[in-house]
Every structure is written in C-alpha cells, then in structure tokens.
Amino acid sequence: MSLRLSPPRLLIIGCGDVGLRVLRQLGGRLPVFALSSSPARFEVLRAAGATPLWGDLDRPETLARLAGLADRVLHLAPPQNQGREDRRTLNLLRALARDRAPQALVYTSTTGVYGDAGGARFDETRPVAPATDRAARRVDAEQRLRWFGANFGCRVSILRVPGIYAGDRAGGHPRERLLRGTPVLVAEDDVYTNHVHADDLARACLAALWRGRPQRVVHANDDSELLMGEYFELAARLCELPPPPRITRAQAAEQMSPLQLSFWSESRRLVNRRLKAELRLRLRYPQPAQGLLA
Q: Which terminus has fewer CB within 10 Å in the chain: N or C?
C-alpha cells in the first residue's frame, strides 16, 4: 500500500500582476488560495488557477479563515499609505499565528529600505536606513516577519525588490514615460537604479518558497548597473523614440512632486549573489536590454 502525499497549499496575499505571473508559472500544479478584498477580481483569480478568498488586511476580523490554511504563504501586499508601521502585515501575522504556522513565507519588500547609498555597490548585509515613511513601513514589516519566523518555526524569506518592469505590466514599461516626455537628470546629477523583470521576480518568489533560508534577506534584482538616464535612453533606442530631456536637480526640485524627487535622491547598486547561489535562480532577463524587448 503506497502513501500518497497531498501537494502543499499556497496562499497568495495581494495577488496582483506578480501574483498572476506566479500562478501562470505554477500552471495548476498546486492548490492555490488568493486573498482579495475586491470580489470584482474573483473571476480573474479563478481563471488564473486560484481559489479566491475574500478578506481585508485592514480589517483583522475578516482574516480568521487564513489560520492553518496553507503550507506556504506569498505576501505581495503593500502596507497602508500612512504611518511608519505596517499594520496590514501585523494583522496578517496575528491571523496566521492562531493555528499551525506555514512552513515558509516569502515577502516582497523594497530596496528603498536602504535609503541613499551614494551609488555604492553592496549586498544584503548593509544596514537599512529608510529615508521616508514609505520605506520605514517596509522595514517594520520585515522585522515583524523575521520575528514571526524565528518564534513560530516558519522559514521567512525577504525579497528586496527594485523597479519592476515588463512590456505587459500596467505602467511597467518605460515607453509610457518616454511618450509623456518625462525628463531625467543630467549625467552629473544622475543616480544608479536597479531593475527586475516581472517574470524573473515571479520566479524568484517561487524559488524562495522552496529554497529560501530561514529569516534571510535576498536582493531580487537583475545584473544591470545603469544610471536612471541611461536606462531610459536605452529604452528610447529600443522603442525608436526620442531620448528623454535632461534637467538639473535644481530644475527637478521645481518641476517634480515630492514622491518623484524621493526616487531621484537615492543611488545604489545591489549585489544579487544570494539570488543566484542560494535560490539557484538563473535570470531570464539579466539585462534590461533583453527584458525590454520581451
């Protein structure tokens, strides 16, 4: 008599563009539940292969059914828009703690937790230094998740994610910005940016769910080291569009919103060695020149 083991169950929190790409790559091989606060998205989730669950991370009383539901959890939901704490992640963890904890949990954070590094190249051992409330909320979520993993026997992986792009991602291709004529900084004021194709990020999420080390941070970026202006000029050449206009930082302070300026004030180059060595991920789009054409 042979013992047939049931496949692990996956719960996706915040199943937007990246979550749908994860579902496509799974191809129905696992039972997947997807938490959503919008019943209007249920048909999309079902069509992608997930069982939709209604729940709102801002309303903890709606999350009770998540306890003990899944063996693995992929947390893609952003924090709320105010404050320096991520109350949504806190509500999620309280719900998961009510029953058997998942074996593994993967959280997509942001590389913004580092603040400005002056263009330095570094790995995941660099201390965080969030310069905005938005980044501070992510640091708060990371700390709560790693504590949960250490105290509830759950293998937590933190993926720090830079700018996500893809030709079929809403707002995720630079051609839209190029068509609007949005400027970039002059070379002497420019900042290093980091990127990852949305399909590679989805593959990194799956790799971390099965191969991530306990309470480990991993940079989920490609191999490029481009200044922001170089990135948009590359996209312009590939799309056969005019290059973006260049302005000084002083001009940007007069023309841009505080949110836009926050992205123009941080410069860093991320080492992705753990992504390749520990998660054993081979990037399909190691350079934007490949991913922008995909």
A: N
Task: Give the confidence band of 5 by pLDDT, cuts at 50, 70, 90.
Answer: low
Least confident of 19-33, 163-177, 191-205: 163-177
Report how far apart, in Å, the C-alpha atoms of 84 and of each of 127, 158, 181, 277, 288 are: 18, 18, 34, 33, 33
Please spell the DSSP secondary structure of 136-179, one letter per residue: HHHHHHHHHHHHHHHHHT-EEEEEEE-EEE-TTSTT-SHHHHHH
- Per the structure block, which two tokens stand in for 57? 């991370």
**pTM for the whole structure:** 0.95
Amino acid identity for residue 114 in this structure: Y
**In contact, 167 and 292? CB cutoff 8 Å:** yes
Identify which of 134, 146, 147, 38 has the alpha carbon closest to the alpha carbon of residue 86: 134
In the chain, the domains with their CATH numbers are 10-164+195-224+269-285 (3.40.50.720), 171-192+225-263 (no CATH)
- List phi, psi (to 5°) of 51: -90, 115
CA atoms within 13 A on the CB side of 90: 10
| Cα 21 from chain centre | 13
Residue 58 half-sphere exposure, CB side, CA atoms within 13 Å?
7
To the nearest whole number, what is the mean pLDDT of the chain? Answer: 95
Q: What's the pLDDT tens digit per position in 278-287?
A: 999 999 999 9
Higher-scoring residue by pLDDT: 263, 38: 38
pLDDT of residue 128 exceeding 60, the answer is yes
Rounded Cα distance, 15 and 35, in Å:
7
